[in-house]
Design a protein that fits this description.
This protein is an alpha/beta fold. It folds into 2 domains: 253 residues, 3-Layer(aba) Sandwich (Rossmann fold); 81 residues, no CATH class. It is built from 14 helices and 7 strands. Strand 6, helix 10 and strand 7 form a beta-alpha-beta unit. Helix 1 crosses helix 2 and helix 6 runs parallel beside helix 7. The longest helix has 29 residues. It is globular. It binds guanosine-5'-diphosphate and magnesium ion. Guanosine-5'-diphosphate (GDP) binds next to helix 4.
């Protein structure tokens, strides 16, 4: 069901290893996540695998903390691994949790292990909590997806907390974005405020055993405010109880429907091109800042500027000074980035 672009005839060693050797895959993911090696090495790796990517279907799962995203990811993984036809291939999972470096990924990891797939070559999970070598969580998540794609995973799930612009951007790195809400907390209105309604291709009302009808109505009402143009995809609302697996098959079916709908309405190449028109400026900004700012905006400089502004200096003038220095540095080659790992903690 996924697009199968023709492969170049010779598969390089690096891609062969990614597909056969879980430790090589883990190392590659560490590299693009910025935990090992330099930014230049991460770049080189991503460039080498690029011709072997684009075959996976990527699904972003986003929503408030505790809404059941990890449980749903585990449930979908279970369904896909059970699919007897093999059409779905391996499952790659990227868990992004900048707020809690350990807990989010660890809990999801436990769930995946509970499925008994930890030793299954067809399931691979990586959690991301820090900015990557390439300068940002979105870039790190994108790199991880590319590596899993090159490693032959046919479905890749990206779990990210749907609070804040960064997380929303990460959810939109996927082909299909699923927004998970739960009944009771005025969720539809909150989702509207957080910009989640605009990005959803599919809604899930999880913990539906609590009673999902009210939220379903609110959501429908909120969606009419977003007003899609006629003939546009209308995001379905799927009710699930992730802990029992109820409704998860319906979510799987909704994903297939969305996949087929885009294929039949202009195709995935055109759809992905439109998605990149939105993503590229954001990723470029992230990376540009990571490359250029550390040289000019050192911690000492930052402290001095902040103190001066607090003491009455003009903030706009300070900003312009910093920007002028960055530009001057580019002109003289002085601000050329050191090809080293992103400085931890700053920025
Ligand atoms: N009652 C109920 N609890 C659920 C359901 N789905 C997940 N949970 C529980 O909700 C809590 C948070 O789930 P988790 O998947 O970690 O949420 P996340 O933070 O969105 O990833 C856990 O205790 C789950 O067992 C559901 O459908 N019904
Ligand atoms: Mg989670």
């Amino acid at each position: 069901m996924n697009p199968e672009p023709p492969l170049p005839p010779v598969v390089p060693e690096v891609v062969v290893r990614l597909r056969r050797d879980r430790r090589a895959l883990a190392r590659a993911l560490s590299r693009v996540a910025g935990d090992a090696g330099t930014a230049a090495e991460a770049d080189a790796l991503l460039q080498a695998v690029a011709p072997f990517t684009g075959r996976a279907r990527t699904v972003g799962i986003t929503g408030p903390p505790g809404s059941g995203k990890s449980t749903l990811v585990a449930a979908l993984t279970e369904i896909w691994r059970q699919a007897s036809t093999g059409r779905d291939g391996g499952v790659g999972i990227v868990a992004v949790d900048p707020s809690s470096p350990f807990s989010g990924g660890a809990i999801l990891g436990d769930r995946i292990r509970m499925l008994g797939h930890h030793a299954d070559a067809g399931v691979f999970m990586r959690s991301l909590a820090t900015r990557g070598a390439l300068g940002g969580l979105a870039a790190a998540a994108y790199g991880a997806v590319r590596i899993l794609d090159a490693a032959g995973m046919r479905n890749i799930l990206i779990e990210t907390v749907g609070v804040g612009q960064d997380e929303v951007d990460i959810a939109q790195l996927a082909d299909i974005t699923v927004v998970v809400l739960v009944p009771g907390m005025g969720d539809a209105v909150q989702a509207l405020k957080a910009g989640l309604l605009e990005i959803a291709d599919i809604f899930v009302i999880n913990k539906a055993e609590i009673g999902a009808d009210r939220l379903q109505q609110d959501l429908r009402a909120a969606l009419t405010l977003v007003a899609p143009h006629p003939g546009a995809w209308r995001p379905p609302i799927v009710q699930t109880v992730a802990t029992t697996g109820a409704g998860v098959a319906a979510l799987d079916a909704a994903l297939d429907q969305r996949w087929a709908w885009v294929a039949g309405h202009g195709g995935w190449a055109a759809h992905r091109a439109r998605q990149w028109e939105r993503r590229l400026p954001h990723l470029t900004r992230e990376r540009l800042a990571a490359r250029l700012l550390p040289a000019v905006l050192t911690p000492a400089r930052l402290h001095a500027l902040a103190t001066a502004i607090a003491g009455g200096a003009d903030a706009q003038a300070a900003l312009n000074d910093v920007i002028d220095e960055v530009i001057a540095g580019i002109a003289t080659g002085g601000a050329a980035p050191a090809a080293g790992p992103a400085p931890g903690g700053s920025g």
